[in-house]
Amino acid sequence: MQLLDYWPENNILALPEPVSKALLNHLIEPFGDEQSAHEFWNEYPSTIIIIEPKDSNSLLTLVGEGVKYLITSGVEFHEYTQSLGQGYQVNLSIVNDAGNGVYLVFRDDINLTLLGVIDD
Fold first, then answer.
1. Nearest CA to 85 among 117, 103, 101, 108?
2. Residue of 76, 16, 78 lying closest to 50 (CA atoms)
């Protein structure tokens, strides 16, 4: 699992390169350019959570309740889901009135219920 609470720089994301590029483009799109997106993130930090196929139930049980809450928000209360290609998707959940969000990235074939992140 990878957890970022800052603007992701090049090659920092634990994703295949085409998926990483798709996610960055997705983050920039609402703002028109990377500088505007970066400025928004500096003022209203969001969180990117990447759940990787190798993440196990035992690993995910070690994360704190705050992270579990963010993951649950990304799964159960998301604004939308968008495909990033190569079997990955991103869910966005807005967590406060200022616009801070959680971008939950995971493969389509990961069952978050079985990993114990969310309830049935």
1. 108
2. 16
Does residue 99 register a pLDDT over 90? no
Residue 68 domain-assigned (yes or no): yes
Predicted model pTM: 0.88
Q: What's the total number of domains in the chain?
A: 1
Instruction: Indicate whether 63 pLDDT > 90.
Output: no
- Establish if 57 belongs to a structural domain: yes
SS3 content of the chain, % helix, strand, coil (to 5): 35, 25, 40
Q: Which residues pair with 90 in a beta bridge?
A: 82, 105
Give the range of the structural domain holding residue 51, as residue numbers without chain letter: 2-107
